[in-house]
Every structure is written in structure tokens, then in C-alpha cells.
Specification:
This protein is an all-alpha fold. The chain is built from eight helices and two strands, in the order ααββαααααα.
Length: 173
């Protein structure tokens, strides 16, 4: 897999800056999950750091947009809580020759957060969640990263939300 820009910095293309508080929360969640993986921080201190110093704040000359803090907390906490189930599901979708543990850490956390939303956030339409995480991936990757995110999350949506995804794909008569 290709290398990604370190997620602790603002991605190159940040649609989340446009003001969608949930989009900002998704980007922040991916960054927080990445930071926890790299630094080994615990959940409460990572959430507190992001809410106090990143989301809606200026850091190293970058101004972060306001995020839906409750949504951010749910995404990060939910991925941590459900990581074993999420990772198994993603591994089922990926080819056996390229398991999740071989995927770039940033991309892995984008997939985890997207899978969490598809599994546990029925208030978010599946297609919207997929599109949001593809956008996050575009912020970090120029190559196949966004396509991989789209393919994996689409497969999970078809498996876990088949009624919703099939219903949208079926033309109305």
C-alpha cells in the first residue's frame, strides 16, 4: 500500500473544513485512532486532548473546524470497543493475501471508523457513510486508497445493511 501523509496534520484536501460538523468529527476520529495506535494513548486522554486542543482549535498554524463532539466521541469510543468485530469483518472483505494488519495504519483506521458507522450508526445512511470515508481517504491518498475504502465499505454495507443498500439500488416503479 502507498504511504500516506501523517494524519496528525490536516490532510491536503479537507472537505470537512466546509463546515459539516460530522465530516469534521469523522476526520478527527481517524486522526485520534491513528494517534492511539502510534502513541499507545488511552481512550479518555485521547478524547480529552482532541476536544481541548484540536477540534475547533488552532494547532501548529492549522485551524481545525468545529466538530460534532458527541459524534466524534461515539466514533472513537465505538471503534475501540468493537475493534475485534470490526477487524474480523474487514478481514473477511479483504483478500486473504492482504489482511488488515498489512494495510497502512491511516487507511486501516479509515476502514475501522467507516465500518463502525455502517454497523452501529443506523441514523447515518450507508451511502453517506461510505462517501464520507472515501472523502477522508482522498485527503491522505492520491492512489488506490480511496478505491479500497469504497470497495471494502460497500461490501460491508451490502452484507450488514442489505435492505438499505439494495432498496436504494432498485429503481422505483
Amino acid at each position: 500500500m502507498s504511504s500516506a501523509k501523517p494524519p496528525e496534520k490536516t490532510p491536503r484536501k479537507n472537505k470537512a473544513r466546509a463546515g459539516n460538523r460530522r465530516s469534521v468529527a469523522r476526520l478527527g476520529a481517524v486522526q485520534a485512532l491513528y494517534q492511539m495506535d502510534i502513541a499507545g494513548g488511552d481512550l479518555p486522554s485521547t478524547l480529552a486532548e482532541f476536544e481541548a486542543h484540536r477540534l475547533g482549535r488552532e494547532l501548529d498554524g492549522d485551524t481545525y473546524a468545529e466538530a460534532d463532539a458527541g459524534f466524534f466521541r461515539d466514533l472513537v469510543s465505538g471503534v475501540v470497543r468493537e475493534q475485534l468485530r470490526i477487524d474480523r469483518l474487514i478481514d473477511l472483505v479483504l483478500q486473504s493475501s492482504w489482511p488488515l494488519k498489512r494495510i497502512d495504519l491511516t487507511l486501516r483506521n479509515i476502514l475501522r471508523a467507516g465500518a463502525y458507522e455502517l454497523l452501529y450508526r443506523d441514523d447515518v445512511p450507508a451511502r453517506a457513510a461510505i462517501s464520507e470515508y472515501v472523502d477522508v481517504a482522498h485527503g491522505f491518498y492520491d492512489d488506490d486508497g480511496p478505491r479500497l475504502v469504497n470497495g471494502v465499505l460497500d461490501a460491508i454495507a451490502r452484507s450488514e445493511r442489505s435492505g438499505e443498500v439494495t432498496a436504494r439500488a432498485t429503481p422505483e416503479t
